[in-house]
Specification:
- It contains 8 helices and 16 strands.
- By secondary structure, it is α/β, with parallel strands linked by helices.
- It folds into 2 domains: about 160 residues, NIF3 (NGG1p interacting factor 3)-like (Udp-n-acetylmuramoylalanyl-d-glutamate--2,6- Diaminopimelate Ligase, Chain: A, domain 1, 3-Layer(aba) Sandwich); about 110 residues, NIF3 (NGG1p interacting factor 3)-like (Udp-n-acetylmuramoylalanyl-d-glutamate--2,6- Diaminopimelate Ligase, Chain: A, domain 1), CATH 3.40.1390.30.
- It has an 8-stranded mixed beta sheet with strand order 3-2-1-16-7-8-9-5, with helices on both faces. Strands 10-11-13-14-15-12 form a 6-stranded mixed beta sheet, sandwiched between helices. Strands 4-6 form a two-stranded antiparallel sheet.
- A hairpin with a 4-residue loop joins strand 2 and strand 3.
- The protein is globular and about 60 Å long.
- It binds zinc ion.
- Zinc ion binds next to helix 8.
């Protein structure tokens, strides 16, 4: 395996019809050969690609709040022979997409969530890269969360859940029985991420909800469905008391959704790459904390 490193982003190339493709990894300055994951034609018209994407993630599955925010949000080239997929639309991702020769970027999170009356520098700089390089942008969000083979099916598969069934946009399934720490460790390993968790229950049934799923309505849904644990991202302080009834495993927004965008690159009908742009977050764990604080002396009044 050869490796070549070009930036802080990892690119997985799924190249038709070559036997092997390249993984560009900045850290190691190397290129890994990866097996071909999809088959495709050389070029397709953009409307045909959109039909294909709508088949994977039907727009009617999306939340009401996503109406007008998903689908083709930037329309450039009509001919598409190379697609990039990513979780987010950032300058970094678009630079990598341009470098890979992409005509279309398919992302999970739109860069334009609120109606726009003015362009911030960050948004303008990001969109400029897409415009300069003639890259269209297509968004599949909560429709891809709910879709068969989408965000939550991929997540359930990675955690080895079986007898999986749909519950709203999440999935619930049986796991190999373990305690909460065991499931947290398995989740960290399978999703390649740090996790934090609350609760201490034996776990035989798990609900997964990629993204930011620690809302009361979803936790209560998971409890009602008989789940012993909920795996999602962005654990909120105010829902931690639910951990007396269900274990809450926070595996980060990024790590619970990103794998399905990688999978997507292998399902597309033309040559496709997956661009991984991991948020640069560092975690410090304080060992042997006594739980008490030495407070600074207060000034004399
Ligand atoms: Zn998300």
């Amino acid at each position: 395996m050869s490796i070549l490193h070009i930036s802080t982003t990892t690119i997985y190339m799924f190249r038709i019809p070559y036997a092997n493709t390249l993984k560009l990894d900045v850290k190691n300055r190397k290129v890994l050969c990866l097996p071909v994951l999809n088959k495709g034609t050389d070029t397709m018209k953009l409307p045909h690609i959109i039909k294909f994407l709508e088949n994977i993630a039907p727009p009617e599955l999306a939340d009401e709040s996503d109406i007008g925010r998903i689908g083709l949000i930037l329309d450039r080239k009509n001919e598409v022979n190379h697609i990039a997929t990513s979780l987010d639309v950032t300058e970094h991702v678009l630079l990598e997409a341009a470098q890979s020769g992409a005509d279309l970027l398919v992302a999970h999170h739109t860069p334009i969530y609120e109606p726009v009356n003015r362009l911030s520098k960050t948004l303008a700089d990001t969109l400029k890269i897409a415009l300069d390089n003639e890259i269209s942008i297509y968004v599949m969000h909560t429709n891809y969360d709910r879709a068969q083979g989408g965000i939550n099916d991929v997540l359930a598969g990675l955690l080895g859940l079986h007898h999986t069934r749909t519950i709203d946009m999440g999935r619930i399934g049986d796991n190999d029985p373990t305690n909460t720490e065991g499931l947290a460790r398995l989740t960290a390993q399978r999703l390649d991420t740090h996790v934090q968790y609350a609760g201490d229950h034996m776990v035989e049934s798990v609900m997964v909800l990629g993204g930011s799923g620690f809302r009361r309505e979803y936790i209560e849904m998971a409890i009602d469905a008989g789940a012993d644990a909920l795996v999602s991202g962005e654990l909120r302080h105010d829902v931690i008391p639910y951990s007396k009834d269900i274990s809450l495993i926070d595996a980060t927004h990024y790590a619970t959704e990103n794998p399905a965008m990688r999978t997507l690159a292998g399902r597309l009908p033309v040559e496709s790459v997956f661009i991984d742009s991991k948020p640069q977050v560092r975690v410090i764990v304080q060992q042997n904390s006594s739980g008490s604080h030495d407070l600074p002396d207060l000034p004399d009044s």
